[in-house]
Predict the structure.
Amino acid sequence: MKMTSLAEELGSTTYPGRGIVIGKSKNGKYAVTAYFIMGRSENSRNRVFVEDGEGIRTQAFDPAKLSDPSLIIYAPVRVLGNKTIVTNGDQTDTIYELMDKQQTFEQALRTREFEPDAPNYTPRISGIMHVEDGKYNYAMSILKSNNGNPDACNRYTFAYENPVAGEGHFIHTYMNDGNPLPSFEGEPVLVDIGDDIDAFTELVWNNLNADNKVSLFVRYIDIETGKYESRIVNKNK
């Protein structure tokens, strides 16, 4: 697979929706993830990321304007021991709870489907990073309707062992803007990952559509020590 510039990939559409990037920094030192949300409606745009323990959660920026919390208020990032879970919905909790009971990432997601938001049937995208004793691997998943047919759920898992320095994978909910919104297609896109958390955060944020972007979370985890640094950027301030 040919590597694509993450900046170009982000800027190629006005509405990739929600997106997850996971990979390894160019110097090989860090396990890297980014998660962003976008919105077209007032309800979707009325959000911020806030810290929640070792993870984050979404929160209404103006509680008075919150009309339906069901698919927009959730914990996108949670940490279970040496595993960091990143998703675009409340399946974060499903993965956390069932993996805590010794089920696998895939087994946990077998209990879930795409979102019930007809006619879009937004895919559920998920990622898990495993950092332990100087070793690192990750996996990504997408659960989507069968070409808009809600009677069938298509399930795809992509696992990456011994990730290559400077490489990451990017998966997002929509191919572009539309009505209904077209679901992501194909494998996660191979993208470049840099060494500096602030430069990477700036790159992602600056290349998301200015009108539709809402919030961004970035984390760099030291593969040797497990210690991490995080950044949160919110359009609403």
